[in-house]
Amino acid sequence: MKPNIQDFREDELSNLIKPKFRAKQIYSWLYHKYIISFDDMKNLPKPLRDELKERFEISPLKIDRVEESIDGTKKYLFELKDGNTVEAVLLLMKKAEYHSDGAIKHKERYTVCISCQVGCKVGCSFCLTGKSGFLRDLTAGEIVEQVRIIKRDNNIEANRRLNIVYMGMGEPLDNLKAVAQSSKIFSEPNGLAIAPHRQTISTSGLSSKIVKLGKMKLGVNLAISLHAVDDELREKLMPINKAYNIKSIIDAVKKFPINERKRVMFEYLVIKGVNDDIKSAKKLLSLLNGIKSKVNLIYFNPYGESEYKRPDRESMLKFQDYLTSRGLHCTIRESKGLDISGACGQLRNQEIKD
Ligand code: SAH
Ligand code: SF4
Hints:
The protein is an alpha/beta fold and 354 residues long.
């Protein structure tokens, strides 16, 4: 099979084609003008366009379905060349604001949540993606394309600041090579130019890979899906905890190079009656002692046959208050797009059933 042109960083591309400077032009067509056909690369000579067509694939994803929420969240289901599907989400973090004279105060702020695998091997008991099993890794180009197509579909200007979170389907550290490559492609100055400190990799806690990621010095932010403070419960929620327990994760995080202005994010999925008690909050506080961290509480988002329940707002606020009053940074993730098959894996699951 031909490689995809989006699998390559600019320096790699410039070694593959002649003359070298064409790589910069190709990057601009791909990542500033979002073209999806080699024929549209108008400033390239026809013979070069033909050569590219012969040697490379382009634009490996097709939009299969889009759902838009009233809060501005847009959820995409993409079809890959082999017919598999993955999800990505465009989150409107802040609406544009204007001064009274009509001048712009700030433009919209976006975050794109992307997938890195079709399915997931980790098999967490609360996660639909995990329940549907693992099919394959995505390539770097397939990861990058999710952002490019979403920018194209929403006419988001090339130079608009945007954040990326690897929090869609799949476990990023189980596909580390392609994920690391995609991160480098995202940050290419002549491409999407999304600086590493605007990218966050979320992991279920593959401790040895956290250390490996740290050694790669990509400069990305780290998020840990912790969800439980003792190994017994964590094993029930996340079977991976048998291989990598909580202590091993905390030790790995302590070795991770954190950007001076940043903190490691600990995601804590709150499930009613399971992990929403103050005893857990207390233990969480002591676990994170000595780590430059912030906690993000997530409401469990129920789906059809799920055995768990969404916590009520009051217990979320109590949990948060316990932590913040003791000096920990703690936010509650407002469940965006609840009305549109909110959490990861849910739109795809719906499609499979349809
Ligand atoms: N595999 C990585 C990244 C993808 S999952 C990881 O686990 O970190 C991204 C986030 O979605 C995780 O924090 C996960 O806990 C959350 N998630 C999964 N199922 C959910 C559900 N039903 N409701 C709310 N969040 C969910
Ligand atoms: Fe995989 Fe993350 Fe879902 Fe767990 S929560 S099954 S690691 S995608």
